């Protein structure tokens, strides 16, 4: 861990640059940001096991295939020691297959958080979370009952339980 202010600012700049090269689809520059023993931790609902550098590249390609125009914007970034946290915004159009779902042509926007741990100026470990519920809702895959529908659903479930007894 480093507390040098210059290293902290450099790590923040590298984290932002990593987003920029992703948006440019510069795979070589994107890979160069990652350290030799890079490990990523995705949300378990998307990828339960940690990802090495090659697996991370495959994981990202799934998003790019589904949302070829996907852009990530850094909303906020804070850093301390060897860690950089960023609040990010995703925006894109679902024009390719994503997680087995054929293109819907729907525009989506969702938020995420990421944490990068640096070693020697490169990302050694990466954790991220994204608002998967917002993404799935925008793709039409998840329906959340509204205030008028919820009592009917609950009433139906209660009747089913009463029939069992």
Task: Walk me through the structure.
- This protein has 165 residues and is an alpha+beta fold.
- The protein has 5 helices and 5 strands; from the N terminus they run H-H-E-H-E-E-E-E-H-H.
- A 5-stranded mixed β-sheet has the order 1-5-4-3-2.
Descriptive keywords:
31% strand, alpha+beta, 38% helix, elongated
Topology:
Blueprint: H1 5-23, H2 27-33, E1 34-41, H3 53-66, E2 71-80, E3 83-93, E4 107-119, E5 122-130, H4 132-138, H5 150-164
Helix pairs in contact: 1-2
Strand order of the largest sheet: 1-5-4-3-2
Radius of gyration: 20 Å
The tally of beta strands, per DSSP, is 5
Distance between the termini: 61 Å
Say what oligomer this is. Answer: single chain
The dominant shape is elongated
Which structural category fits the helices and strands?
alpha+beta
Mean pLDDT: 91
Count of DSSP-assigned helices? 5
Low-confidence stretches: none
Order of helices and strands: HHEHEEEEHH
Major beta sheet summary: 5 strands, mixed
How much strand? 25-35%
Helix content percent band: 25-40%
What can be said about this structure in brief?
This protein has helices at 5-23, 27-33, 53-66, 132-138, 150-164; strands at 34-41, 71-80, 83-93, 107-119, 122-130. By secondary structure, it is of the alpha+beta class.
